[in-house]
Amino acid sequence: MKFYELSRQERLASLREGGQLTAESYTYLLEKPALNESILNAMVENSIGQFNLPFGIADHFLIDGQVYFVPMVTEEPSVIAAASNGAKRVASSGGFTTVASEHLLKAQVIIHGVTNHDELTKRLTNAEAAIKRVAISARPSLVRRGGGVRQIEYNQLPEGYEELALWIDPVDAFGANMANTIAEAVAKYLQVAVLQDDERILTAILSNTGEKMTVTIECAVNWSQLATDQLSGEEVATRIAELNHFSTLNPDRAVTENKGILNGVFAVALATGNDLRAISASVSHYLQTTSTPVLSQWQLDHEQQLLRGSLTLPLPIGSVGGAINSLPATQISLELLHNPSAKDLMSIIASVGLTNNLAALRALVTNGIQAGHMHLQTANLAIQAGATGDEIEVLHEKLNQVSQADLTLAKKLLQQLRNEG
Predict the structure, then answer these.
(1) Using 50, 70 and 90 to split pLDDT, how confident is the model at 373?
(2) Which residues form a coiled coil (predicted)?
């Protein structure tokens, strides 16, 4: 049987037998224990419980030569199905390849009351060695792990503002807390040792720009992998490239295509304990500063009969630290991904975004998005109608046999099912 045809228990058993899950992780997912009170109270203020979302697996991913079962947390039925579908087509053509990746976090020390920018910049430049020493003393453990301040920039701004930018290598963490600690230590040093007259520190804080936390991944899909019963692979590939190009001309279409990419990105980020707000902010900034409104690119290669895709994405994420280390399910997600480095995790997340994009574009230019989408949504419709236990699957199948399923019909079929039972 195919992976998606197995029961939840059978999927877990398959992952355990294949070595993707330890016996401890298998038991945890099988028994679904609640987070204990100490974790809940430590992670959020005024805790009243926990909010559950479905935790699933997308298979068939081949990324930089490594096979992955990718954990995804989402309430949307079609996201994991689309990811697995697209990944299978890409894997058959060689998989995803990381082209470029960098993982530097920016911290800002903002100075106000500057009257002579050139003179202040000179003082800051002369103090650069001391600034680096202060940064090291603020987080010496970061340097021991191979990270630390990699670049310092001085940016003169209007109305008496100047920015000292610290570009920090947080190794495998996202690094928000360490960036803030370093920035605040540097700010205190500057106020005492460097600033003069009316010059004062306004604040010291990380930036969510994501400018130097980016990854670029590529894939190539054989036209034969895109064909339908009615359309040749070349025709489908041509339509995908055309629709993607239309997104560069039309912001309304571009924002929807980007949302489809983020369906996959957010689902993996959530499963691995990363900050969706930080990703959202950095993607917004990236789109504002680039020349195209759409994140992905799909182009035809007629000579080799390939559809070539690429995605460049800012991903301010980590694979250690914060909630990542606190949540048991997050640790299981990372276990499934072979405990990746932050850069490896960036490649995985971006690959899922691009494969969700491929699956959505293929659906849009062939049968339309609703055919597969509503087939999966009818399970939710069955739940809304009041189905429980085994009734859900039976009603789900009945609803998929009609052309237009709605809640009224679902309730009617459920009552018939119960009468028959």
Answers:
(1) low
(2) none
